[in-house]
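Per your request, structure below.
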């Protein structure tokens, strides 16, 4: 972060990134920062979304604020790993009483038929409000599935909403529903 010409501006640099607010603004009026230079998470889809927020802010369109805790992360390994929101430990550290649900792919019909039973889905809810605090998955194609929980968080969906949703059968995504049910002692297939 050296030699960027920021020394005579109000732009603040902390450790490895330029400090911005939830609308990508720096402390210097008219100066914005997005992407890796604006800090973690260092993900292409976060940078792209920041670009949209930045342009909308400049254009006076009043965009929504960016909540970096709700940005899904995907690891394209074998098995794949995907997550959004808080981990169970982070939720507890922030003072939440939590309900946790887990569902293994070994209990999912499509996973069995595909021979992809390694892995699981884990969800973390706030016990009092039913807010979905986080979701974590390991297994084949979970990077395609995490968007369901990312959308649920954006819409402030509760456990009751997720439990009443009807998911198609047979799909890997049924494990997402089962994990929610498991958090409340209502899983059907384990």
């Amino acid at each position: 972060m050296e030699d960027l010409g920021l020394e005579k501006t109000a732009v603040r640099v902390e450790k490895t990134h330029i400090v911005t607010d939830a609308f990508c603004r720096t402390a210097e009026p008219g100066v914005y920062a997005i992407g890796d230079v604006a800090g973690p998470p260092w993900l292409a889809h976060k940078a792209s979304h920041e670009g949209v927020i930045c342009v909308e802010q400049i254009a006076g369109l009043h965009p929504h604020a960016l909540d970096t805790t709700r940005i899904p992360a995907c690891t394209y390994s074998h098995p794949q790993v995907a997550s959004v929101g808080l981990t169970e430990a982070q939720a507890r550290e922030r003072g939440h009483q939590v309900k946790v649900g887990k569902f293994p792919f070994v209990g999912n019909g499509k996973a069995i038929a595909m021979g992809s039973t390694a892995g699981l889905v884990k969800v973390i809810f706030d016990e009092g409000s039913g807010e979905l605090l986080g979701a974590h998955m390991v297994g084949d194609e979970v990077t395609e599935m995490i968007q369901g929980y990312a959308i649920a968080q954006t819409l402030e969906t509760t456990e009751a909403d997720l439990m009443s949703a009807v998911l198609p059968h047979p799909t890997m995504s049924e494990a997402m529903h089962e994990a929610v049910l498991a958090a409340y002692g209502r899983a059907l297939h384990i």
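Helices lie at 44-58, 88-93, 109-114, 142-154, 159-164, 174-183.

Regards,
D.
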